[in-house]
Amino acid sequence: MTALVLTAHGSADRGSAANAQAVAAGVRRMRPGIDVRVAFCEINRPNLIDVLDGCSGEAVVTPLLLADATMPASISRPDRAVRSQSPCATGRSARRRRPSGVGAG
Fold first, then answer.
1. Judging by beta carbons within 10 Å of its beta carbon (0-12, 13-18, 19+), is residue 48 exposed, middle or buried?
2. Is the whole model's pTM more than 0.70, yes or no?
3. Domain residue ranges in the chain
4. What angle do CA 70, 88, 69 make, to 5 degrees?
5. DSSP string, 6-58
6. CA Rg, the chain, in Å?
């Protein structure tokens, strides 16, 4: 089964991850036959690489951007900002992309 991975940026705001999970739960209720998962680019868990590694088949990765999000973690909580490059930005997830789909560059 193809998984739908809703990928949020991540936030130090505790409610952010809960909101992403709530959106995923709503999609699951509307489409019970779809394997809906949530991933985060930074701060929160699980990260995108771990979610993709847990998928047994193909995955469709889509951004999940909530309009009322708080400031980016590097501004709101510089002490918790991720200093390394995010797998969402570096193309490390390219190995899971479909060959006929989007390229890594």
1. buried
2. no
3. 3-96
4. 10
5. EEE---SSHHHHHHHHHHHHHHHHH-TTSEEEEEESSSSSSBHHHHHHT-SS-
6. 14
Q: With b meaning 16 or more CB within 10 Å and e meaning fewer, what string describes 18-35?
A: ebbeebbeebeeeeeeee
**51-90 confidence digits (pLDDT tens):** 999 999 999 999 998 755 455 555 544 454 444 445 554 4
Whether residue 10 contacts residue 64, with contact meaning beta carbons closer than 8 Å, is answered with no
- Contacts of residue 62, Cβ cutoff 8 Å, sequence gap at least 6: 4, 5, 6, 7
